[in-house]
Automatic annotation (TrEMBL), chain A:
Keywords, alphabetical: Cell membrane, Membrane, Transmembrane, Transmembrane helix, Transport
PROSITE patterns: ABC_TM1 (PS50928)
Highest taxon of source: Bacteria
Signal peptide: none
Protein name: ABC transporter permease
UniProt organism field: Streptomyces lichenis
Presence of the UniProt keyword ATP-binding in the record: no
InterPro entries, sorted: MetI-like (IPR000515), MetI-like_sf (IPR035906)
Membrane topology field: Multi-pass membrane protein
Chain segments annotated as transmembrane: 32-54, 93-116, 123-143, 179-202, 285-304
Record-annotated ABC transmembrane type-1 domain positions: 89-303
Automatic annotation (TrEMBL), chain B:
InterPro entries the record matches: Bact_Polyamine_Transport (IPR051789), MetI-like (IPR000515), MetI-like_sf (IPR035906)
UniProt topology in membrane: Multi-pass membrane protein
Protein name stated in the entry: ABC transporter permease
Protein family membership: Belongs to the binding-protein-dependent transport system permease family. CysTW subfamily.
Pfam entry (one): BPD_transp_1
Transmembrane stretches, start-end: 12-35, 73-93, 105-127, 133-154, 180-202, 234-258
PROSITE patterns cross-referenced by the UniProt entry: ABC_TM1
Keyword line: Cell membrane, Membrane, Transmembrane, Transmembrane helix, Transport
CDD domains, A to Z: TM_PBP2 (cd06261)
């Protein structure tokens, strides 16, 4: 870890160290890490951390676009924002949570397949998982409009199998439509973030020593028991980072809700976007965004503590 | 019964392939509909086969301009984020210094935050400073959010590097610069390349942060977003399909070259 400790460093040219003296690296070398860090960290401080401070200050301002905004410590903005938009927060967390669970259920078999069963097809399947990234995700999300079109093959099949009856009863779809319903939005979210679930899952599954499976079999564990007691626990780091990589972006997304949903499926991202870019009510928008950040950070921290994996980065 | 058991034993394979189909289906639709001749302004329903869009990919006003702008921004963002990120990664792995924990969290946080929060807060900064929104604000934003991903990719590679290789180089009287250029950099190169590729893909396809900070500048994702409201030209699908094809081609050729080199390396 400490590759630049003194033992291999060439002695400084000007002053040879006296015998017995503990050699310290010359000041110039001790400053190297700081010079390496400086530009990048400065960038993050100015364009990531400082904006959060500005946002916090904007959220307690009052005023109007014409007269300008002043900091008045008007914390009521937060309560008003929460009171007015709590359905959108609940919806965001619900949709993002459902999409995350679906991603895990759909992604795990595929990650497992790539890691253990694919053989010489492994690279091809990996390419197929990653390749969709290269088509703009907006174009791919628009393709779902075609797939879920009213009267299309998918909707027809769901109707024939009476799936729509169940989803209608649950309130996920309306009548014989899937587009512009919660189901379409969750479907789009699941689709968009699925690769972010599969890749970490695959990485952690691929690291598992195959001999552990053999050992489990030798000890008369059934395939199901082997999975429950050996494979799944060992893939936990992948499960944790996969769920985070899915849930975090999904909770703030507004693309799927806008393109595949209706006014009844608006998520908090849609509200923040329209407050910032159309209504131009900056204090409310900043407060909304701050609440979302706090909620997500708290949930993520609690989740990481519970899942017990701290070495994610 | 036999068939049922056969299916049960391969349940994982079937489930996995179904997921794969779910992932690929939209790309297939995009590809098929690049040959459509839609009835109205929107290209969502099939009408008849046509190669008109392929013969005239830039036939839509402003689309190819937005594409070239996206490529430019992605290129500069990749260069910026890769240089800054690689420097940070080396500092983190190779040196001990104060405030290490704080710096680690500063790098982790952008990845643990919904994009819309970063987008909105950056916009408040630019508004407060009275900055002109456009190319430069988008580039600044892209370098910012790509940085953490580059650091993570490069860090993983540098961490797994054997420090004895550099010690050997120094023992053989290579100077610090020579050691870095001839030993360290070549070994770290795959990590740096992976980080750069990730940065390019993230920047090129970014919508949310760009949507907030672009002002009236239109990148390719912004163009697609706008067309979802005004009418989706078939040419969008042509670009999507072409990008997909190029990516798959690059990967396949790369794999083949790597395989050939491996075969040549073996006696």
């Amino acid at each position: 870890m400490t590759g630049t400790t003194t033992e291999a460093a060439p002695p400084p040219l000007t002053t040879a160290p006296a015998a017995g003296e503990v050699r310290k690296p010359p000041t110039r070398r001790r400053l190297v890490p700081y010079w390496l860090l400086l530009p990048g960290i400065l960038w993050l401080l100015v364009f990531f951390a400082l904006p959060l401070v500005y946002q916090a200050s904007t959220s307690v301002q009052t005023g109007s676009l014409e007269k300008g905004f002043q900091v008045t410590w008007h914390f009521a903005t937060y309560w008003d924002a929460l009171a007015e938009y709590y359905p959108q927060y609940v919806r965001s967390l619900l949709y993002a949570g459902t999409a995350t669970v679906l991603c895990l259920l759909l992604g795990y078999p595929l990650a497992y397949l790539i890691a253990f069963k694919a053989g010489r097809w492994r690279n091809l399947i990996l390419v197929l998982v990653i390749a969709p990234f290269f088509t703009s995700f907006l174009i791919r999300t628009l393709a779902w409009k075609t797939i879920l079109a009213d009267g299309g093959a998918v909707v027809g099949a769901l109707d024939a199998l009476h799936v729509l009856d169940v989803t209608n009863w649950l309130g996920w779809t309306q009548g014989d439509r899937v587009l512009a319903t919660p189901m379409a939005v969750v479907c789009g979210l699941t689709y968009n973030f699925l690769p972010f679930m599969i890749l970490p899952l695959y990485t952690s599954l691929e690291r598992i020593d195959g001999r552990l499976h053999e050992a489990a079999r030798d000890l008369y564990a059934s395939p199901a028991t082997t999975f429950r007691k050996v494979t799944f626990p060992l893939s936990m780091p992948g499960v944790v980072s996969g769920t985070l990589l899915t849930f975090i972006p999904a909770s703030g997304d507004y693309v799927n809700a806008e393109l595949l949903g209706s006014t009844d499926t608006k998520m908090v991202g849609n509200v923040i976007q329209s407050q910032f870019l159309r209504v131009l009510d900056y204090p409310t928008a900043a407060a909304l965004s701050f609440i979302l950040m706090a909620v997500v950070l708290i949930m993520v921290t609690v989740y990481i503590r519970r899942a017990g994996t701290e070495d994610l980065v | 019964m036999v068939l049922l058991r056969w299916i049960r034993r391969r349940l994982v394979v079937f489930a996995g392939l179904l997921t794969l189909a779910y992932l690929i289906l939209p790309n297939v639709i995009v590809m098929v509909f690049s040959f459509n001749d839609p009835a109205g302004r929107f290209n969502y329903a099939w009408r008849e086969f046509s190669t008109a869009a392929w013969r005239d990919p830039c036939g839509v006003a402003d689309m190819c301009g937005s594409l070239s702008l996206s490529l430019q921004i992605a290129t500069w963002a990749t260069i910026g984020a890769t240089v800054l990120g690689t420097m940070i990664a080396f500092a983190l792995v190779r040196y001990r210094f104060r405030a290490r924990g704080a710096i680690n969290s500063l790098i982790f946080l952008p990845m643990a935050m919904p994009e819309v929060v970063m987008a909105a807060s950056l916009l408040t900064l630019f508004l407060n400073l009275g900055a002109q929104l456009g190319f430069w604000t988008v580039l600044i934003a892209h370098i910012m959010f790509c940085l953490s991903f580059v650091v993570t990719a490069v860090k993983a590679r540098v961490m797994s590097m054997d420090p004895r290789l550099e010690e050997a180089a120094r023992d053989l009287y290579a100077g610090p610069v020579q050691t870095f250029l001839r030993v360290t950099l070549p070994i770290a190169a795959p990590g740096i390349a992976a980080g750069a590729l990730l940065a390019f893909a993230l920047s090129f396809d970014d919508f949310i942060i760009t949507n907030f900070n672009a002002g009236s500048t239109v990148t390719f994702p912004m163009f697609v977003w706008g067309s979802a409201q005004r009418g989706t030209p078939v040419q969008i699908n042509v670009i999507g399909t072409a990008m997909f094809a190029i990516a798959v081609l690059v990967v396949v050729v790369g794999q083949l070259l790597a395989r050939r080199r491996n075969r040549a390396a073996q006696p």
